[in-house]
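Structure ticket #2291
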Amino acid sequence: MNKNRILALLDSADIYGKERANIEVYHVLQQNGFDIHVGYSKYAVAAMKNELTCFPNKSFPFPRNISGKMRSLKYVINFIRINFVLSWHVHKLNPDFILLPTEWALFYLYITLLLTKAKVVFRCGDDPLTYRKRGKAATKVYAYIWKHYVLPRVDILVCNAKYIQKRMKDSGRVDKGYDKLIYNYPPLRLDYFHENETTYLPMGNGLRVGFIGRIVPEKGVLELIEALGKIKQMGKEITLYIAGDESVNPKYTLQLKGVINKLNLKDDIVFLGKINRIHTFYQQIDVICIPSIYEEPMANVVAESKTYHKPCIIFNQGGMPEIVEHKQTGYICDEVSIDALSKGLMFYIDNPSEIIREGEAAFNSINCLQLDKFTFTKKWIDVFQFAK
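Resolution: structure written out below.
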């Protein structure tokens, strides 16, 4: 049995795709003999805590999403507090590795990381902030600290897309010979075990398109609805099922429903809310659409949809085109626009036989792209074979 002890820190309060992907890593490590302990946010939602019950765990006051009056002072106080509390915990636990999930954690835990001999592993799934905060006055200072102080403290960098690897290199990362590319394996959802439940999607006409994820502007839900409107104007039949929490951004959800009413699409678009029957959802759609309008590094849904034999429609940006082959395992829209998205949807309306062919090809591509559980497990074990 592997004796390496890992302290995995999960500083987010909510649980979405990124958090589920990190928890999947924890499961893999635990199942393969690693002594893994999880530190989670004291502000974590119940669903997050529920996912972590199978690990030795402890809550910490991570200084994320601080708001209100005297925000800067609150951050300084919480910064000092978390480093004091966590440094003491690290001293007692004496881990061989500390596994971090976010760039923010690297920054506000920097003192703790300097005071420990544990190897630091950073699982990176987002653009460095030096790209996301371009044009701001403090960016150059931040970039200098990031390149010369924070990044050098990372012993092993694990990226979930080649796109992120390049971004990290451009921001100053120097590979010490241990950095790795590990694509996400579709994280286990507790609701996968409802396979025998009956049909629950309202019956729709024509092409049945699914969207699952956060209902926020950057995910492109508005663009998808408007693309649907263009197709309906052509007299084509199509139904869209939107699965996701409508309360994440209530104003945006209200805007979407206003557009749906304006375009007279009430009978063609169904909001499912949070769904508990993922298997049934995928069984009853033809294609999945992930129309993120920002350069999304990777989405768990791309790999997940492959396991359900579904083609995937995406835009040609970010990291997702790395694992989708145009008109072979999905459709890559050539530009981020409503017209391009409409064209992608129309491809499957006009060529319904491609849905099955590409769905099978998508499933068969899992091993070739190293998205399978065996490869995912082996690569993560290799990460922690790094010498103490």
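Closing remark: The chain has a mean pLDDT of 90.
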